[in-house]
Amino acid sequence: MSSPLEAVLRRDRVVVAAGVAAIAALGWVYLVMMAGMDDMAGPDLRPWTSGDFVMMFSMWAIMMVAMMLPSAAPLLLVYAGMARQQEERGHPIAPTGAFAAGYLLAWTVFSGAATLLQWALERAALLSPQMVASTPYLGALLLIAAGVYQLTPLKSACLTHCRSPIAFLLHRWRRGFAGALRMGTEHGLYCVGCCWFLMGLLFVGGVMNLLWIAAISIFVLLEKVAPRGELVARTAGVLLMAAGVWMGVTA
Description:
The chain is mainly alpha-helical. The protein has one domain (about 5-250). It contains eleven helices and no strands. The chain has helices spanning about 5-35, 50-70, 75-90, 95-125, 135-150, 155-165, 165-170, 175-200, 200-205, 210-225, 230-250. Helix 1 (about 5-35) runs antiparallel to helix 3 and helix 5 (about 135-150) runs antiparallel to helix 11. The longest helix is centred in the N-terminal third of the chain and has 32 residues, at about 5-35. It starts with a helix and ends with a helix.
């Protein structure tokens, strides 16, 4: 017979998993709706207005929620379990939502940087109104650069943190709401460090190409949860470099 605590832990895991799935699903619904709009494109060869910046930033921020929140589910589930156990012992800690908010804060900051990069590429006539690299040479450069980054020590270090949720919490535990928010932000920054170049590949396949977005999302998830995630990352690095060379040669 399961103990009452085990039953509560199972319930908490279901609640957290359902919450992550629901939020990510809402993000994907938004992306599908945006991709289906005939006029969904960047401001065509004209200076961006404040409204353009807000629209593009919102698009990036919601896209990052849809793509990245599912890959953070293992850590959120571990945190929720630890929070429940501490509460049962009379030492309540901040809710899982505070941790998740910190994680999404890191990706929101990244979304701001991605919006500025998109603006700069469009101003330099390197990005089409459909938000795709306007020249295959830029696409080739992005593929090669992303492939090289997959093989760097920084990528490996960030991926290690992302793949070790228990170790992360044990070594970086902080009390209170602010502590949970900070832990979530720190983990989010590691995740950004792990995946930021992969997000740059959206400019190769299309920022609003749903199949391309889904492919990158699935790959990020495999990197973090597959038994040989490090090998997956390195193999992908070699393949990305090869694809970049091929694109440049055949341009």
